[in-house]
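Let us practice reading a record.
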Amino acid sequence: MATPANIVKGWKLPAAVAAKMSRADLDKLEEYVKGFGARGLARARVSAGGAWTQSPMKTITDALRADINAAASAEEGDLLFFQFGSKKLVNAVLGGLRLHLADKFGLIPKGQWKFAWVTDFPLFEEADGGHMVAAHHPFTSPFPEDLERLESEPASVRARAYDLVLNGNEIAGGSIRIHQSDVQARVFRALGLSEEDARAKFGFLLEAFRYGPPPHGGIAAGLDRLAMLLCGADSLRDVIAFPKTQKGTDLLTEAPSAVSRKQLDELHIALKE
């Protein structure tokens, strides 16, 4: 069975901050990254002469270690963190770890508002089994200049999607939608949908394209996340009306709760034991 292409990435924690981390602190990071789906965290503390200590990577060659040190401009006392696996997993783990340590050591400036637009997202992601899935949704418009690679190199096609980020938190996101029937059909084919499947699932949309919809798009704002930042809260649960616990339960309404057989029969729903 094919699997998504794997990558290796890493980043460096400078010695001035790395000196504050004990071996026990590093071990705790193992558990932290497992929350992102990682199996563990490869790391190394750079010692004199570029040697690595406190590292589980015992079989790495001297030449490769020297190349990695050079690529990271690593110096004595620095900590190197590595993750390998699918691109989505690696980026989530290392990005989350970076923010976690920056917050832990007070490296994020307080009282400042920094906005950023994030663009050039991939149109597709490779799923287990090697097939493509929509990274955003299957109606997101690809970049016009990338259309020629839609069939030959779908993983390289960019989406006309965008996120607005404030202080590292996504507060809005959206995309430009496909408005051409031929482009939508090509995207469906890239996702592995036959013409029959596409008609069965999205026939109403393909039919609407016959009437010439204009180019269109939009953006949705996350007001609860914006409220969290404005209040200086650490969690969305501090600012939403009916917060859920980490297990997804609602303490106010005691949901989820048992459903009566009469309710299930009215909705024609059967429970699988």
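A brief commentary: Strands lie at 6-13, 42-46, 52-53, 79-86, 115-118, 124-126, 132-134, 161-166, 169-176, 217-221.
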